[in-house]
Amino acid sequence: MAAVAVEEIRATSYVGFDSITQQIEHKLLKRGFQFNVIVVGQTGLGKSTLINTIFASHLIDSKGRLESDDPVRQTTEIQAVSHVIVENGVKLRLNIVDTPGYGDQVNNENCWDPIVKYIKDQHSAYLRKELTAMRDRYIQDTRIHCCLYFISPTGHSLRAIDVIVMKKLSEVVNVVPVIAKADTLTLEEREAFKQKIRAELIYHNIRLYPFDTDDSDEEEVQLNETIRNIIPFAVVGSERSVIIDGKSVRGRKNRWGVVNVENEEHCEFMHLRNFLTRTHLQDLIETTAQIHYEAFRSKQLLALKEGVQQRPATNQ
After folding, report:
1. What band does 215 get if pLDDT is binned at 50, 70 and 90?
2. Cβ neighbours of residue 156 under 8 Å, at least 6 residues apart?
């Protein structure tokens, strides 16, 4: 049935329903917001450090060795860590899922399966709660809203396993690729590497976030296009402060100078942080619910319906 056009009428005097945005904001601020991010990549690419840098808080411990005689530490199973971060009265419940470094073994066949299964399991858990007769007023949301995919700064091209894993993940989650430890590349090497990666993503038909939809306005389309021209983000993470011109900044100091994490001329960390927190945080959450979860939900309910139809009738 086609939608009927409804005439827009201007109220002749003030009614007050324009305050609904303030009412919604008040309720949302009381409840807070939930954001779930999963980090995927090889061991040693600084996944924990980057997360801590993005949210300006020590949220997860780095597995890196501080001394030469320290034992090698790495994530051996999928681990979720939860924190509540407060900024100007806004509460963000942040759920960070750390994954084992994939591709570290001699045989890496299907090493991505546990990660894909974990993401689908969160969809499944949400669906079960949603279909419960006496469901909670607010269902706890553990669905993964964003996957930060860490690419090794080789300067050459994507590894075959990177192509496979990103393709598998992009079917179930919003994938945002980042080139880790980008300070190991010169600016020319970095730009050439980014162009190679973008070409390979197109060639292998890997559809990454952000997506344009019918609801996107011109401003949102332009912003998404700008982001796509930057992806993959070439980033550097650091929890340490260094002094530059008498000012304390987060960065990495070496014999050649200082890499200022928040200087856009040094790396694209600021672009990534603004993208994740200031421009696309809500869209990441909505895209998860409206695209990835909805596709999973439809598939599960159709399978359930077919199973009921194929079940033999019993005699009463």
Report:
1. confident
2. 193, 196
Contacts of 181 by beta carbon, 8 Å cutoff, 6+ apart:
45, 46, 153, 236
Per-residue three-class SS string for the chain: CCCCCCCCCCCCCCCCHHHHHHHHHHHHHHHCEEEEEEEECCCCCCHHHHHHHHCCCCCCCCCCCCCCCCCCCCCCCCEEEEEEEEECCEEEEEEEEECCCCCCCCCCCCCCHHHHHHHHHHHHHHHHHHHCCCCCCCCCCCCCCEEEEEECCCCCCCCHHHHHHHHHHHCCCCEEEEECCHHHCCHHHHHHHHHHHHHHHHHCCCCCCCCCCCCCCHHHHHHHHHHHHHCCEECCCCCCEEEECCEEEEEEEECCEEEECCCCCCCCHHHHHHHHHHHCHHHHHHHHHHHHHHHHHHHHHHHHHHHHHHCCCCCC
Mean pLDDT, residues 260-277: 93
Burial level of 27, CB count in 10 A (0-12/13-18/19+)? exposed
Model confidence, pTM = 0.87
What is the rounded average pLDDT of the residues 137-166? 93
CA distance 234 to 151: 9
- Does 279 score more than 80 pLDDT? yes
Mean pLDDT, the chain, integer? 88
